[in-house]
C-alpha cells in the first residue's frame, strides 16, 4: 500500500478529499472501502497485528492521515468520541501529582473531567481567564504538564488566542515537557489551524463539523508522531476506539468540510447581522460582528470565516426564549452543533443545566440566552424562519 501523501501544500478542499490518500490502482474503488471488520488475518511471529480497537484498520489509518493533513500536523488519530479524544490526550501525558492550567471557558464534560475525575487520580487544575495573557505564565508550577484551552468558547463564542499559552509553555524552560492542547471543535481546521500557532495537540469532537451531518459520534486528535503514538496507546488501553462504519461516515463528511464551512460561516454571519438589527434582541454574540469583544482577534486568527455559531439574548428573558424556540419551524431544538441542519438550544437546559441561574449569569449566559448552530440551508429561509419566530 502506497501511503505517500501527494497532497502536501494543497488547499483545504483538496485535503478534505485527498488528504492522506492511498494512491489507487486500476480496479480499486474510488471511495475508500468500508471494511467492517473487528480484526484482520495474521498471527505469525512477524505479522503486524491489526485490530480495530488498536486504531490500525486501513480506514482508521487513512482518516488519521487526513486529519493530520488538514491540521498541518505530522500525525492524526480518529477516536470513538470527542470526550474519548480529550480523555485519551489527558491520560497520555499526566501522572499522579501533575498539574494542568486550563481556560475557565470549557465544554461542560471537559470541565467535569478536570474538576471531578482527574482530582480522583491526583491531578489538579488551575483555571485561568484565558484572555489574560499573563495568567498562563503565572499559573504554571513545577508539576504543570498541560495547558488546555478551547476556542471559540461555548456558548459565548469568545476567541481565545493560543499563542500566549504556547509562549508560556516555551518560556517555562527546555525539558519541562509542557504541552499546549486545544479543543478546536468550534473552529475547524478550515477556519483555524492551531498547530501553526504553537499548539502541540489539536482535539475535536468530530461529531460536529468534521462529520457534519449529525449522524456520528466521533473524536479526532492531531499532533507530532510521538505524541499521537502516546495518545493511541491510551485509546487502546481505555477503549476509546472508533468503529469502522463511523470512520467511513467521518471520511465522507471530511470530503465536503471546506464547502460546508464556507456556507456555515456565511449563514452565521448573515443571521448574526439580522439579529443585531432586530428590536426583540438584546445582544448578539458572533466573532464576525464588529460589536463582539474579540472581533479584532477573530479577524486576525480567522481570516477565512468566524464560524457557524451565533448566540443571542432575547428581550423578556427565559419565557421569551422558550416562546421563540417553540415558534421556530426550520431551526430545530436540539443539543449539539455543526451539522448541515440548523439547531437551536438554550444553555440553561443543555450544557449549563447543572449551574444556578446566578452562576450562568456570571458567565454571561443569562436566562433568555439562545445558541444557534447555523446550518447550510438557503440563508433566506434560515433568516426568514428566525424573523417569523421573533415577530
Ligand atoms: C467543544 C466540545 N468539545 C468536546 C465535546 C465532546 O464531544 P463528543 O460529544 O463527540 O464526545 C463537545 C460536545 O458537544 C464540544 O462541544
UniProtKB/TrEMBL annotation:
One Pfam family matching this protein:
Cys_Met_Meta_PP
Organism of provenance? Gaopeijia maritima
What superkingdom heads the lineage? Answer: Bacteria
Record keyword Transferase present: yes
Cofactor names from the entry are: pyridoxal 5'-phosphate
Q: Which InterPro entries match?
A: Cys/Met-Metab_PyrdxlP-dep_enz, Cys_met_metab_PP, PyrdxlP-dep_Trfase, PyrdxlP-dep_Trfase_major, PyrdxlP-dep_Trfase_small
Q: Which GO terms describe its molecular function?
A: transaminase activity
Q: What is this protein called?
A: Aminotransferase class I/II-fold pyridoxal phosphate-dependent enzyme
Q: Which family does it belong to?
A: Belongs to the trans-sulfuration enzymes family.
Its keywords, alphabetically, are: Aminotransferase, Pyridoxal phosphate, Transferase
Q: Which CDD domains match?
A: CGS_like
Amino acid at each position: 500500500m502506497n501511503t505517500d501523501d501527494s497532497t502536501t501544500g494543497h488547499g483545504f478542499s483538496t485535503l478534505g478529499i485527498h488528504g492522506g490518500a492511498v494512491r489507487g490502482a486500476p480496479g480499486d474503488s474510488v471511495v475508500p472501502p468500508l471494511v467492517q471488520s473487528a480484526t484482520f488475518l495474521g498471527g505469525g511471529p512477524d505479522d503486524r497485528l491489526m485490530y480495530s480497537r488498536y486504531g490500525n484498520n486501513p480506514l482508521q489509518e487513512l482518516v488519521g492521515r487526513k486529519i493530520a493533513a488538514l491540521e498541518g500536523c505530522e500525525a492524526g488519530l480518529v477516536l470513538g468520541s470527542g470526550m474519548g479524544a480529550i480523555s485519551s490526550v489527558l491520560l497520555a501525558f499526566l501522572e499522579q501529582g501533575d498539574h494542568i492550567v486550563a481556560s475557565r471557558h470549557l465544554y461542560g464534560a471537559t470541565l467535569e473531567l478536570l474538576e471531578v475525575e482527574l482530582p480522583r487520580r491526583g491531578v489538579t487544575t488551575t483555571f485561568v481567564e484565558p484572555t489574560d495573557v499573563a495568567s498562563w505564565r503565572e499559573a504554571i508550577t513545577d508539576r504543570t504538564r498541560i495547558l488546555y484551552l478551547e476556542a471559540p468558547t461555548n456558548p459565548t463564542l469568545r476567541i481565545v488566542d493560543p499563542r500566549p499559552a504556547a509562549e508560556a509553555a516555551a518560556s517555562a524552560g527546555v525539558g519541562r515537557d509542557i504541552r499546549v492542547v486545544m479543543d478546536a471543535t468550534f473552529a475547524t481546521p478550515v477556519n483555524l489551524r492551531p498547530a501553526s500557532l504553537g499548539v502541540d495537540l489539536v482535539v475535536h469532537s468530530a461529531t460536529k463539523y468534521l462529520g457534519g451531518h449529525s449522524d456520528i459520534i466521533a473524536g479526532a486528535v492531531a499532533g507530532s508522531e510521538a505524541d499521537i503514538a502516546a495518545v493511541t496507546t491510551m485509546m487502546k488501553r481505555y477503549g476509546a476506539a472508533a468503529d469502522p462504519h463511523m470512520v467511513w461516515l467521518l471520511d465522507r463528511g471530511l470530503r465536503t468540510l471546506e464547502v460546508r464551512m464556507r456556507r456555515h460561516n456565511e449563514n452565521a454571519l448573515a443571521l448574526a447581522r439580522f439579529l443585531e438589527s432586530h428590536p426583540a434582541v438584546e445582544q448578539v454574540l458572533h466573532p464576525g460582528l464588529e460589536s463582539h469583544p474579540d472581533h479584532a482577534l477573530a479577524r486576525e486568527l480567522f481570516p477565512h470565516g468566524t464560524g457557524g455559531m451565533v448566540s443571542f439574548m432575547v428581550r423578556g428573558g427565559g419565557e421569551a426564549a422558550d416562546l421563540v424556540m417553540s415558534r421556530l419551524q426550520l431551526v430545530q431544538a436540539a443539543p449539539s452543533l455543526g451539522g448541515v441542519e440548523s439547531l437551536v438550544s438554550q444553555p440553561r437546559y443543555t450544557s449549563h443545566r447543572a449551574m444556578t441561574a446566578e452562576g450562568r449569569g456570571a458567565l454571561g449566559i443569562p436566562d433568555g440566552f439562545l445558541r444557534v448552530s447555523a446550518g447550510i440551508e438557503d440563508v433566506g429561509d434560515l433568516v426568514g424562519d428566525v424573523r417569523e419566530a421573533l415577530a
